[in-house]
Design a protein that fits this description.
18% of the residues lie in helices and 19% in strands. The protein has helices spanning 2-15, 70-78, 124-135; strands spanning 45-53, 56-64, 101-104, 110-114, 169-173, 178-182. The strands form two sheets. It has a four-stranded mixed sheet with strand order 3-4-5-6, with helices on one face. The chain has a two-stranded antiparallel ribbon with strand order 1-2. 27% of the residues are buried.
Length: 192
């Protein structure tokens, strides 16, 4: 009996609340499922990373799995030469404990690289490695998966926003120091 009284009380409270019945209200497209923010796979691309061959800045082709953007290329450069490349080239860039944050202005003339942690200021050859790699990134890279990083800063631009090497400038921000390097003296990468 208690259960039937509870059911009757619920039915009365719902019908006696003063809300008139209504028809279906149209409110646009129906829900269509879950969206995955994971980037779609794409073909690997070849980019030129600049290393030092007996102190001379030279481009070395490197295959990067897609989707890749300017931040991915800069991360690969900081990763240094592969074991096979270390036979002939070196780097003056440090191995980083965390990925740098790479951003660019809308004209893609100025690229900023914010370094994690306590990293010492770079040598001129290290700055040229960065500037030349950024300036000569291939057009074949894909767009980054979103327009902004999780922290709200602009995402690293896709390399298909090709920049003129002579007009590219890299601004590196360390802990208590900044450096700027233009790419106007960079050697051309070899043609495939």
């Amino acid at each position: 009996m208690t259960a039937s009284l509870a059911g009757l009380a619920a039915a009365l409270s719902l019908t006696a609340c003063g809300v008139p019945p209504s028809d279906v209200i149209q409110a646009g497209e129906p829900a269509s499922g879950m969206f995955s923010a994971a980037p779609k796979s794409s073909a690997p691309v070849v980019v030129s990373l600049y290393f030092l061959d007996d102190g001379v800045l030279t481009a070395h082709p490197r295959t990067i799995a897609g989707p890749a953007d300017l931040g991915t290329v800069v991360g690969a450069l900081f990763g240094g030469p592969t074991p096979g490349e270390t036979m002939t080239v070196t780097t003056e860039l440090p191995r980083l404990t965390d990925a740098p944050v790479v951003t660019a202005d809308r004209g893609v003339k100025d690229v900023s690289i914010k370094l994690p942690g306590d990293v010492a200021p770079f040598s001129r050859p290290a700055m040229l490695q960065l500037a030349c790699t950024v300036a000569h990134v291939s057009r074949s890279l894909t767009a980054p998966p979103s327009d902004a990083d999780p922290d709200g800063s602009p995402a690293a631009p896709a390399a298909d926003a090709q920049r003129s090497p002579a007009r590219t400038s890299v601004h590196v921000l360390g802990d208590g120091w900044t450096m700027r390097q233009s790419a106007d003296s960079c050697p051309e990468p070899p043609r495939p």
